[in-house]
C-alpha cells in the first residue's frame, strides 16, 4: 500500500514516543521508507539506536552535526520525502511549529519542509485544552497541517482525559489516507488568491481587503485530493500552505504573468480579488507634498482580466476554468452574464449584500453556475465551500465526467 513512499518521522519528547517504534515497524511492513528526526527530549524516552535498528536508516538529531550535514543537508532531509509525520507532537513542538521557531533539527525541518505534514498530538489533557494549544492547532490547520488524534483515555500521570496519542494503527491509516491516490492524482491545478496591490509610487499603493482565505482553502482542498497545485497569491497575511507551490505576486500584471508562465494546467480557479485598474501615472520616486500645490491626480488604466485571459488560451486553455462573482443583487443573473463575458466554464457566485450576513460571517450561500444551469448550494461553512468545489472539480475531470 505504501510501496516506496518516503516518510520523515519527527519524534518529540513525550512518553508516547515509545509508540513510535511500533509505528515505524508498521510503516515498514507496508513497504514505506522511514527516516527519523528526534528532539533531544525524545531521546529520553526512546533511543536513537532502537529507532535506527527498526527504520534501517540513520537517525538525525543535531542540525550542526558535521556528519549529518555532510551526508544530507537539513533542507534536503526535510524535503526529500512524501510526507512528514510528527508523532508524538508535544504541545511544545506544536507551539514552535505555529510560531515558526527553528531552534533544533526537528523544528527546523518542520519550518523548511514543503511536504504535507501529519501531526499526532500527545500531551496532558490540561495542555490539550489550553487556549494556547487550541489556537496553535487552529493556526496549523489553516496552513494545511493535518492531525490524527489525540484520543481520550488514561494518561501517563495516572489521570485520564483527551491527550493520548493516536494508536500506531490509526496513524498508519491516516498516512495511507493522505498518500493514497486521490481523485485528482496527476491533475495540475492553478489557483489565484488574495488581493493585488497597484503602486502609486514606491511607498503607496491601491489595494483591497481580500484576505485570500477562500482561495488558499481551495488550493489546500485540491491538494488534499491529490492535485499538484500552484497557488499564485497577492499580498496576504496567510502562511504558504504546506505542500503547495506558492508564488507571491503584487500586481495584476505580475499575477497574470505568473499564471501564464505556469500553463498548461488541467484546471484554473481564479479566486483572487484582482484590482480592476492600475495606476498609469505611477511615479518612480515618492510623490512629495509641495506646500500650496494641489494633491496629485491619480490616473487609472484597466488591468488585464486574468480569468478572461486564461479562458481564451486556445490549445493551452485549461480543461476547466472557474471564476468567482460576489454580487449584492440579482446574484444569479449577474453571475450568468459574467460567465458568458469572461468565457469561463463555471462561476461560483455568492450574495454579499448586507442582508446575507456573508461579510464577516462563517457561512456562505453559493450558486455554482455552469453551461448546464445553476446549482444552489445549501448555506454551508465557508471552509466547506472549498472542499465541495474540489470534489466537483474532481467529478468534472474524471474520465466521462461533465460539469
Ligand atoms: O469582474 P469581476 O472582478 O467581478 O470578476 C470576478 C472574477 O474574475 C474572479 O474570479 C476574479 O478572480 C476574476 N478576475 C481576474 N482578473 C481581473 C478581474 C477579475 O481574474 N482583472
Instruction: Kindly give the count of domains.
Output: 2
Poorly predicted runs are none
Radius of gyration: 24 Å
Top CATH class of the largest domain: Alpha Beta
The strand line-up of the biggest sheet is 12-11-8-13-16-17-19-20
Report strand %. Answer: 15-25%
Bound molecules: cytidine-5'-monophosphate
| CATH fold topology of the largest domain | Rossmann fold
By helix and strand content, what is the structural category? alpha/beta
The CATH superfamily of the largest domain is CoaB-like
In total, how many beta strands? Answer: 21
Q: What would you call the shape?
A: globular
End-to-end separation: 32 Å
* Largest sheet descriptor: 8 strands, mixed
CATH architecture of the largest domain: 3-Layer(aba) Sandwich
Percent range for helical residues? 25-40%
Which whole number gives the mean pLDDT?
A: 92
Quickly count the helices.
14
Structure description:
The protein is of the alpha/beta class. The radius of gyration is 24 Å and the shape is globular. It starts with 5 loop residues before the first strand and ends in a 6-residue tail after the last helix. Strand 9 and strand 10 form a beta hairpin. Helices cover 33% and strands 23% of the residues. Residues 192, 252, 270-272, 274, 303, 305-307, 323-325 line the site of cytidine-5'-monophosphate (C5P).
